[in-house]
Amino acid sequence: MNNSTTLALWINTESKGTVALLSKYNAAGTGAGYIFRLSGGRPQLVLGGMDSQTYPPMATGTVKVNDGNWHHVTVVITVGEGIQFYVDGVAAGSRSTRVVGGGDGTSNLNLGVCQWVPFGGYFNGMMDEVEVYDRALSASEVNSVYLLSLQ
To answer: What CATH number should be reported for the domain holding residue 42?
Structure first.
């Protein structure tokens, strides 16, 4: 992750474990990249060691989304500032952390799985409208993306 990034998607699941949503993570080599996952039903972001100067390099949202209903989940990763979660267009937790732009140019972008399976099992549920932005969206932009996707 060389720049600020926003990851957003619709999910529907009842999964109770730790499951990957989107990941671009290289555990075998540099320890760089990210894993956007659910842990205990809450959105969570894990950053590779090269991408964070905070330990543990993770943040967890405050709203559970594993209730069998459709939810729009978003994580905004702002280099130099931190991590912000949104559920259904509304802020759902944040963490100030020293996110740095180490990046991972060798791993694939994976949907519903992490290349390093211990960090996120296979997603069991439905996904739709996956979006990856090469910048940090503002709160109003996240809400607009959510509202536009309802139409």
So the answer is: 2.60.120.200
